Amino acid sequence: MEMTLWGTRGSLATPGPDTARYGGNTSCVSVRGREGTIVVLDAGTGIRRMAATIPASLRRVDVLLTHLHMDHIQGLGFFAPLYRPDCEVHIWGPASTQASLQARLMRYLSPPLFPVGLRELPCDLHLHEVDDAEVGIGEFRVASAHVCHPGPTVGYRISDALGRVVTYLPDHEPALGALTFPSLPRAWTSGGTLAEAADLLIHDSQYTVHEYSGHVGWGHSSLRHMLDFGSLVETKHLVPFHHDPGHSDLDLDRLMTEAIDDFQPAYRVTPGREGMSFDLR
Amino acid sequence: MAATKPIQLILARQLASCVAAPILLMDADGTLVFFNEPAEAILNQRFDETGEITGDELIKLIEVADEDRKLIPPEKRPTRVARVERRPVSRTVWTRTPNHEWKHLQVSTVPLVGESGSLLGVMHIFWEI
Predict the structure, then answer these.
(1) How far apart (Å, rounded) are the C-alpha atoms in residues A132 and A120?
(2) Cβ atoms of B16 and B34 closer than 8 Å
(3) Per-residue pLDDT tens for A180-239?
(4) How many CB atoms lie under 10 A from the CB of residue A151?
(5) Chain A residues touching B1 at Cβ < 8 A
(6) d(Cα A101, Cα A163) in Å, to the nearest integer?
(7) A209 close to A243: Cβ distance less than 8 angstroms
């Protein structure tokens, strides 16, 4: 399967010359299988460009939302398949006791925030509320589990028939409340099973250690926590993701180099940049 | 591979590790999956040594009695009520483990229900009277 990063920025779209290399679009990743299945992870502003690569012949596409914070759904109204009557669009997202997934999405996809309402979309739309479970989507198996981030939030583990695994945890604070991190086994760590031995782990890397100390409980990881988590779950390849909007390309070059040099991970680390692709053979 | 506990249990364990009140955490099947250091005085066991304790083992490990020190049957213990009937229980009890004295405790037992409505576990908080 092939993964492409269409938006790597966290919290707020941050276009401009200072962020051109890592990218300014918010979270969106596509996963394409060898048999043609296309799964889209999150609908941040990166989804608009991603949608332009979907072939006109495709009759089904699945969008897996980790949660409904604005930076993960802002691009949804610009996802071209939603306007194709010949296309099934399946949107998956975490359940809430307060309102259905449809009702929560309609808060954004309705006037005055957006001119087109969810009910007016011409595609064949299916909404699915996900829990801690596993489902089949085309040629993939997709496991979801709630993870540590404010409000209902899930992470996803996607496996193909060859056993290749990509895990997506873009907004994740596994160290929250831990006296030291990591001190507990994977079974007692948020996202532990989802990311176990993943061939590719796309993970929150929003803060420096210093920045994290001022943002405990905001739902994100420091670079150090991300690297510790990568070791705990024994990933093979880690992709730092969800970059802070205040970090320029030069900042990220320096912060990533310092963190990786200091930690010396036993696995590969490739800081996520918009447009980057990974082919798991 | 060992499945990761529900995030609600993970966060409850982190909370239990940081407070002085004895806290027991059970999963949806009734297995005692964690108890903090203050709770070791109630069970007369250390979690580091016992690990998880099944519901059947727990019934043998600790007696739970009412104000008259009449044993409360397993199906009426706060644990079972919270788990099966999915409602909180707050009451006083006497507890005793083998070869130890009775302890007089106030217990509040709360079912942990997730956003999807499924029961994920039960948290017990104790106060010694």
Answers:
(1) 31
(2) yes
(3) 899 899 999 999 999 999 999 999 999 999 999 999 999 999 999 999 999 999 999 999
(4) 14
(5) 186, 193, 196
(6) 31
(7) no
- Closest Cα in chain A, distance from residue B56 (Å): 22
Hey, what are A1's tokens? 């399967």
B3 → closest Cβ in A97, A148, A193: A193
Cα separation, A125 vs A127, in Å, equals 7
Q: Which residues contact A112 (CB under 8 A, 6 or more apart)?
A: none
Q: What are phi and psi of B61, to 5 degrees?
A: -75, -35
pLDDT confidence bin for A96, thresholds 50/70/90: confident
3-state secondary structure of A19: helix
CA A266 to chain centre: 23
- Portion 186-225 of A in contact with B at CB < 8 A: 186-194, 196
Q: What is the mean pLDDT of chain B?
A: 94
- Burial class from Cβ neighbours inside 10 Å (0-12, 13-18, 19+) for residue A241 reads buried
Q: Give, in words, the CATH class of B7-128.
A: alpha beta
What integer is the mean pLDDT of A119-125? Answer: 95
pLDDT for B41-55, tens place per residue? 999 999 989 999 999
Alpha carbons A81 and B22: distance in angstroms, whole number: 54
Per the structure block, which two tokens stand in for B46? 């250390």
